[in-house]
Write a structure and sequence with these properties.
Largest sheet of chain A: 6 strands, mixed
Strand content of chain B: over 45%
Radius of gyration of chain B: 13 Å
Helix content of chain A: under 10%
Mean pLDDT of chain A: 97
Shape of chain B: globular
Order of helices and strands of chain B: EEEEEEEEEE
Number of helices of chain B: 0
Number of helices of chain A: 0
Structural class of chain B: mainly beta
Number of strands of chain B: 10
Largest sheet of chain B: 6 strands, mixed
Mean pLDDT of chain B: 97
Low-confidence stretches of chain B: none
Oligomer: heterodimer
Strand content of chain A: 35-45%
Number of strands of chain A: 9
Distance between the termini of chain B: 40 Å
Shape of chain A: globular
Distance between the termini of chain A: 35 Å
Radius of gyration of chain A: 13 Å
Amino acid sequence: QSALTQPASVSGSPGQSITISCTGTSSDVGGYNYVSWYQQHPGKAPKLMIYDVSNRPSGVSNRFSGSKSGNTASLTISGLQAEDEADYYCSSYTSISTLVFGTGTKVTVL
Amino acid sequence: EVQLLESGGGLVQPGGSLRLSCAASGFTFSSYAMTWVRQAPGKGLEWVSNLSGSGGSAYYADSVKGRFTSSRDNSKNTLYLQMNSLRADDTAVYYCAKGLYSSNVWGQGTLVTVSS
């Protein structure tokens, strides 16, 4: 199972919006609405930011939003803040009942 | 409070074995599938295995299939990962997480180092 493809890095200034893409296949991202997004700060466990493509868990800022079109999912962070600087990973359920993560994206707040 | 606490990590020689534990609290453990995820030093997240709530159905990444086994004791609210024939590229922080499609509860991770 190959990892989902994410850009290695994305950057933006405070207050701006950025979008991170996550590209898979029809056997994972395109085939199921089980795409999730995780934020990970150095030395910390991942934190769920979006589940089932576009749902936010309780307590997650509404500055984070998710969407999907075909085999590509996207995470948008609006009103970028310094605390958003972290690594972000997408994940998707697959046709063989496994899970696959994305390659990860480092978000830098300029 | 919903919590997961991993233990059992450490230094092991190539070819050796190790069993990780993940103690759950604050939720009805038997009602949830559980997931193991690992992260090699400086690398991304890698899904390892998932296990159904009953323990009757498990799936594994190709990289660990045949060497790792997930199990659970619902009477003890504990998830296990038995790791055999360990290799250097199994060196990673291992996390347990609640859920199958997504996980909003993660443990703090336990470091496994495979080295001679």
